[in-house]
Amino acid sequence: MSFQRVGLRFAQQLRAPALRNTFQRRYASTAEKLPPTGSKLVGAADNAFNRERAAVKAHAAATSDLWRRLSIYVVIPCLILGSINAYNLWTEHWEHWSHLPPLEERVEYPYQNIRSKNFFWGDGDKTLFWNDKVNYHRKDKAT
After folding, report:
1. How large is the average pLDDT for residues 29-57?
2. Helices 17-27 and 3-15: angle between axes, nearest 10 degrees
3. pTM for the full model?
4. In angstroms, rounded to a whole number, what is the distance separating the alpha carbons of residues 30 and 138?
5. For residue 141, which of 113, 118, 105, 101 has the smallest C-alpha distance?
6. How would you class 79 by CB atoms within 10 Å of its CB: exposed for 0-12, middle for 13-18, buried for 19 or more?
7. CA 2 – CA 126 distance, rounded (Å)
């Protein structure tokens, strides 16, 4: 075959609608073909993929709106009510502690405040989470 015949044949193939449409579809921008947001799909843009994508977008918008409303109108009031309940329980707990005898007069059982060696912080007697309102340790007692 001569180069001239090959060139003519190639030119005819380029003018063929199937190949030309392939190149045009590949290099064309989809932004021009898609309708603006919120409008109905028409023409070539009305296909299964674009309908599915629009349905997913609408579902995501509805779902995010649901969760936003739940967060504002359900979660925040539940947090407030839970905080009020925790505060009431906290004050009731400390009211009970006020009826107990002072820390120095309470019985210290053998399993409490066991020290095999001193802690390396502070005076060596208090744990890391020591609370003077709750914890008491008699140093004169043999452990």
Report:
1. 74
2. 70
3. 0.45
4. 82
5. 113
6. exposed
7. 101
